[in-house]
Amino acid sequence: MDLILKYFPGLQPYQIERFNLLKELYPAWNKKINVISRKDIQHLEERHILHSLSIAKFIQFRTGSKIMDLGTGGGFPGIPLAIMYPGSHFTLVDSVGKKIKVVSEIANALGLNNISLKNMRAENLNEKFDFVVSRAVTTLDKIDSWTKDKILDRDQNDIPNGTIYLKGGDPGKDIDSLGNRASLIPVSKWFDESFFLTKMIVYIKK
């Protein structure tokens, strides 16, 4: 928890307790169902929890916000963000049933009541959200095509509704097709660790 508290010193006790629990729950579940690479599980706090929370540096979701985590995998970035923003609702979507099972067990163990789980392809979900978040699922043009009809017209946060995508490295020409709707923000502007030197947030306005 030292790393998370370094960048988020104002966490409430119940949030600290839940982040600490993540460091117990994920290694235990990962032995049963592999949702995090073996080499990465020892870097859980930095490479998964804190990386997910870079979105919380980019935007502070207001109470009542609806967020979809597209291709949540093992629950990132959705679960850390749900801990950070208990007043917002997060719908975690993945087409792989065993991953949703792990996420369900972890969410239940944490007592998170602001999470819904969907075992399906995100493009088939008939629901709209303020924001879609995702991490290294596919190319930007595919993410945009899957999510642009899932964004609510209302804007109740400090930035317009859209997609917030965590991506490793420079997206290069991948971002060109999105024109002026897309912005690129280096995660290293908030976090000092060398792991984040190549990490980016791509924000795509609706």
Write a concise synopsis of the structure shown.
The chain is α/β, with parallel strands linked by helices and about 210 residues long. The protein has a single domain (about 1-205), classed as Rossmann fold (3-Layer(aba) Sandwich).
Strands in their spatial order, largest beta sheet: 3-2-1-4-5-7-6
What is the fourth-level CATH superfamily? Vaccinia Virus protein VP39
Shape: globular
The fraction of residues assigned to DSSP E strands is: 15-25%
State the total count of DSSP E strands.
Answer: 7
Helix and strand content put the structural class at: alpha/beta
| DSSP helical segment count | 6
The overall average pLDDT, rounded, is 93
Radius of gyration: 16 Å
Give the uncertain stretches in residue-range form.
none
Assigned CATH architecture = 3-Layer(aba) Sandwich
Order of helices and strands: HHHEHEHEEHEEE
**CATH class wording:** Alpha Beta
Tally of structural domains: 1
Largest sheet descriptor: 7 strands, mixed
CATH topology-level name: Rossmann fold
Distance between the termini: 35 Å
Helix content: 25-40%
Explain how this protein is built.
The chain is of the alpha/beta class and 206 residues long. It has one domain: Rossmann fold (3-Layer(aba) Sandwich), CATH 3.40.50. The chain has helices at 2-7, 13-32, 44-58, 78-84, 97-110, 140-147, and strands at 66-70, 89-94, 115-119, 131-135, 162-168, 182-186, 199-205. The chain has a seven-stranded mixed β-sheet, with helices on both faces. Helix 2 packs antiparallel against helix 5 (97-110) and helix 3 crosses helix 4 (78-84). The radius of gyration is 16 Å and the shape is globular. 42% of the residues are buried.
